[in-house]
Amino acid sequence: MLPEVPKPGLRHEVEKLLVTDSDIPKNLVVSDVGQDTNRLFWSKYSQNTKIAFLGLSLLWAGFFFYLFFTSPALSNPKDDSEQIYIFLALVPVFLVGGLYAAFYARIEKLFMQQFAASQGLTYVGKGTVENLTGGLFSMGHSHAMSHIITGSFQNHPISLFFYRYTIGSGKSAHTYQTTVLNIFHDHTLPPALLLVDAQYFGGFSPKLSFEKPVKLNPELDLDKQFDLYSKEKYEIEVLQIFSVDFISKMLADWKNFNLEFSGSNLVVFKSGKILNSPELNNFFNLARYLMTGMEKRLAGLAGSVQALNELNPNNK
């Protein structure tokens, strides 16, 4: 007589719903995190599983909505039990949302790892926000970095990462996501800020970057796309950087990207996470251009900037 084969338990069935590394093809090349996540996440579950889950979810939600509409709490403003019924009715939505978020996080990490490898850089992962200089990093609270990539290009140490911060508190709190690339120089840069729109960052102010900001008006009309600021007394140096050729290039190829010169760091940043290959490659192309096409100009201004710093030692 053959031994009885044990039936899979409930725990085994639940584990089949969870997202694991085996659900991600080893040869997967992620080009768009959102599209690739949608495609792979929904293909993980069979048609029968989807239909069964949908049916059970409708029965679950219907039961608790029935309790909600028949509850005496509706006529008693002091009774909050109806909120519990609504929460329980939406449990299936929260479950799918949690599974999707877990899958999305894995694809996002894989995307950044693949980008790092394609550029000859190193994927580090998490890190601390210490030693970051620039007005962007003075905004709000609850600062966090994720998916950090480090390396060097043209003898410049660089770091690319996603940066998050929150402005306000309670119900008025708003969290902002940005994509940042730091380019480190061995000489001081003139304090300057090229900003697309302050509201994208919660009311970004050049005063967070440097005192006594002066708004500049180069030969080309920037006001339709950018605001250009310099620290007082550094206007000549900044205008030498933001030449007509450079501004034309920014308006043509990188009109949604922001630049900040802070100390020895050149910070390139954009509102939101960049999670598709064409845009992230374009972002990195801007960094390449800044390191190859502008380095001689920046190095040539180093002596003048240093002299201005020495003349104004009390200016921050």
Largest sheet: 9 strands, antiparallel
Helix content bin: 40-55%
Would you report the number of β strands?
Answer: 9
> Numbering strands along the chain, what is their spatial order in the largest sheet?
1-2-3-4-9-8-5-7-6
Uncertain runs are 10-15
Mean model confidence by pLDDT: 82
Binned strand content = 15-25%
Structural class designation = alpha+beta
Element-by-element helix/strand order: HHHHHEEEEEEEHHEEHH
In angstroms, what separates the terminal alpha carbons?
86 Å
Shape label = elongated
Number of domains: 2
- Calculate Rg over CA atoms: 26 Å
**SS field, number of helical segments:** 9
Explain what you see:
The chain has 316 residues and is of the alpha+beta class. It has two domains: 31-115, no CATH class; 123-311, no CATH class. Helices cover 41% and strands 21% of the residues. The chain has helices spanning 10-17, 33-43, 47-70, 81-89, 91-118, 235-241, 244-253, 277-293, 295-311, and strands spanning 122-127, 141-153, 156-167, 174-184, 192-195, 213-216, 227-231, 258-262, 265-271. Strands 1-2-3-4-9-8-5-7-6 form a nine-stranded antiparallel β-sheet. A hairpin with a 2-residue loop joins strand 2 (141-153) and strand 3 (156-167). The radius of gyration is 26 Å and the shape is elongated. 25% of the residues are buried. The model is unreliable at 10-15 (pLDDT under 50).
State the gist of this model.
The protein has 316 residues and is α+β, with helices and mostly antiparallel strands. Helices cover 41% and strands 21% of the residues.
